[in-house]
Amino acid sequence: EPEVTQTPSHQVTQMGQEVILRCVPISNHLYFYWYRQILGQKVEFLVSFYNNEISEKSEIFDDQFSVERPDGSNFTLKIRSTKLEDSAMYFCASRPGRTDGELFFGEGSRLTVL
Amino acid sequence: ELKVEQNPLFLSMQEGKNYTIYCNYSTTSDRLYWYRQDPGKSLESLFVLLSNGAVKQEGRLMASLDTKARLSTLHITAAVHDLSATYFCAVVGAGNQFYFGTGTSLTVIP
Q1: How confident is the model over A86-103, as pLDDT tens digits?
Q2: Topology annotation, domain B4-109
């Protein structure tokens, strides 16, 4: 069964360092998302991406964050200068083009900022 | 921003009992999804509800949607330990982003 894959599963970084989280969405999906979940808390929307551009972003997604789809398969989230409060689980998700499609989530990348 | 609230936030129930989790949302939407998350794991899709009055059932779980009341319910029948998890509802906003509820952490006690 097709699945969303994410790497790395866990990354530890120092405050102020740049981090890139990678995702390979399901191949025939058209919409791509990043969410984050701070331990034990709700799932927060960061950004959605469609047709090679950002379609929506939340207040959390400030200038420190960027997304790219550098080729036909990968979808990356970059955090330019990490802060302690960026420590969270980051989930990539994708969904098909039809309007009723549900989100399919990857296993997540746990980011720990020290 | 679309707000999605669930209650209760925490639910401890005995095996064999029934209970309902509620999901309220703040603006009009005709698409609602339920997800399950096990500790330390990803989110798994449970139900897709696409119209007013929609009802879906899978095993001991049944979900329904009332778009006029902006309310969805997830009913648990005769709970078993394997249902212990956190359950999230999600509502689709105008920009096709999914807004997730606060989550309900369910513990089923033998």
Answers
A1: 999 999 999 998 777 889
A2: Immunoglobulin-like (2.60.40)
